[in-house]
């Protein structure tokens, strides 16, 4: 989730790629090198029977956005440790157990959702703003990224990994659908021209601007807010495959008050204090779409819960723990979450997710390369 308040930066580099067909190789470097080096990346195929459709020049636009973000972090972190471009401020990475329900409706028993199975997991809680120093009391989007470990099955990642990531924000819809609009927005926020900033609402359109403003909120504890995947995912394979969205929320509805005098990093403090005292419990929910009028390409329109209910598929137990150590914080920074660390049964759907394949891969490689750190998947 990108934030309007971004330091002024140099303009963009146009990266023009010739495209043919639906499946497109974006990098030509196939030499046998480390995990930080780009290798041939294949733009995702669309699934027309789940009503996916490509936008014009989509793969090239994704690459242009990735190049703008790369330029931006190379400049912003030239003399510092490179952080994520989006969600750079973590409240903490915690160990968790992701326990699938003992029983599930037949249509939800797919991929990682094996009844009774418990996965070990890492969860990273974050703020959305590109400013990692922003005080937690400022309105912002809040992220929850779950990484399940040792998940058996065919993984869609280009890396040899057995992780399944679920990435969510505490708002149900995303502020953009259209790659061209997202590119225009990125050009605006990364420009050092003041007039470009005024153009942002035109780049996003009225609905996108409204969603972007409403995605920013205040919370008292990352364990007590509700998160949504915003964008859809496939569930299952073959003729029974369907489109779903995800959500996660606390098992209890208790919400603590925001402190009267909030410290800069009070959300980290709240997470630390909660987990010093007791185990935390969250529910993981799946929302199968109930009508093809619920679009997989339109991530700006919510699939209303009264028309498409959520089903609980797993309980997330975050055991009592000490997570706020220098070693664990460093480990957390070096992790990479992407929707494309996924089993084929949980394939990401829609233009925003397709573009994220290119963008998250490139940006994770760049920040690891800048920090002279090998990328690795636990
Ligand atoms: C085209 C749209 C998007 C772009 C360009 C984008 C860009 C990014 C980038 C560059 C990162 C950092 C990756 C890394 O360095 O490893 C990131 C992280 C993240 N994004 Fe997005 N994003 C997009 C859409 C979304 C959507 C729809 C969600 C909704 C759930 C989302 C949620 C997150 C979260 C929670 C993180 C932090 C993950 C972590 O803890 O490591 N993003 N995004």
From TrEMBL:
The keyword Signal applies. Keywords: Signal. Residues 81-187 form the Catalase core domain. One of its GO terms (molecular function) is heme binding. Transmembrane segments: none annotated. Residues 1-27 form the signal peptide. Coiled coil: none annotated. The keyword Transcription does not apply. SUPFAM superfamilies: Heme-dependent catalase-like (SSF56634). InterPro entries: Catalase_core, Catalase_sf. PANTHER family: DOMAIN PROTEIN, PUTATIVE (AFU_ORTHOLOGUE AFUA_5G01990)-RELATED, DOMAIN PROTEIN, PUTATIVE (AFU_ORTHOLOGUE AFUA_5G01990)-RELATED-RELATED. This is Catalase family protein.
């Amino acid at each position: 989730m990108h934030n309007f308040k971004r330091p002024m930066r140099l303009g963009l580099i146009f990266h023009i790629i010739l495209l043919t067909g639906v499946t497109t190789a974006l990098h030509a470097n196939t030499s046998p090198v480390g995990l930080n080096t780009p290798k041939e990346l294949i733009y995702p195929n669309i699934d027309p029977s789940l009503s996916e459709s490509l936008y014009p020049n989509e793969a090239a636009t994704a690459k242009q956005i990735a190049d703008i973000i790369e330029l931006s972090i190379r400049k912003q972190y030239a003399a510092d440790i490179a952080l994520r471009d989006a969600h750079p401020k973590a409240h903490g990475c915690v160990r968790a157990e992701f326990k699938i329900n003992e029983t599930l409706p037949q249509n939800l028993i797919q991929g990682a959702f094996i009844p009774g199975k418990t996965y070990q997991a890492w969860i990273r809680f974050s703020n959305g703003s590109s400013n990692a120093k922003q005080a937690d009391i400022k309105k912002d989007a809040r992220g929850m990224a779950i990484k399940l470990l040792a998940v058996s099955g065919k993984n869609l990642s280009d890396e040899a990994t057995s992780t399944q990531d679920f990435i969510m924000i505490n708002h149900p819809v995303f502020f953009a659908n259209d790659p061209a609009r997202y590119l225009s927005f990125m050009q605006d926020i990364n420009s050092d021209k003041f007039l470009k900033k005024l153009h942002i609402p035109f780049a996003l359109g009225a609905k996108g601007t409204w969603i972007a403003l409403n995605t920013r909120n205040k919370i008292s504890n990352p364990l007590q807010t509700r998160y949504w995947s915003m964008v859809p995912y496939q569930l299952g394979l073959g003729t029974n495959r369907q489109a779903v969205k995800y959500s996660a929320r606390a098992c209890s509805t208790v919400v603590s008050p925001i402190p009267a005098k909030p410290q800069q990093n009070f959300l980290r403090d709240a997470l630390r204090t909660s987990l010093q005292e007791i185990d935390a419990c969250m529910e993981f929910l799946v929302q199968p779409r109930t009508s093809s009028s619920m679009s997989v390409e339109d991530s700006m329109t919510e699939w209303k819960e009264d028309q498409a209910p959520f089903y609980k598929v797993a309980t997330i137990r975050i055991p009592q723990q000490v997570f706020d150590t220098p070693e664990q914080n460093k480990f957390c920074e070096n992790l990479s979450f992407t929707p494309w660390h996924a089993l084929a049964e949980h394939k990401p759907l829609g233009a925003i997710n397709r573009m994220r394949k290119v963008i998250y891969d490139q940006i994770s490689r760049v920040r690891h390369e800048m920090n002279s750190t090998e990328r690795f998947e636990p």
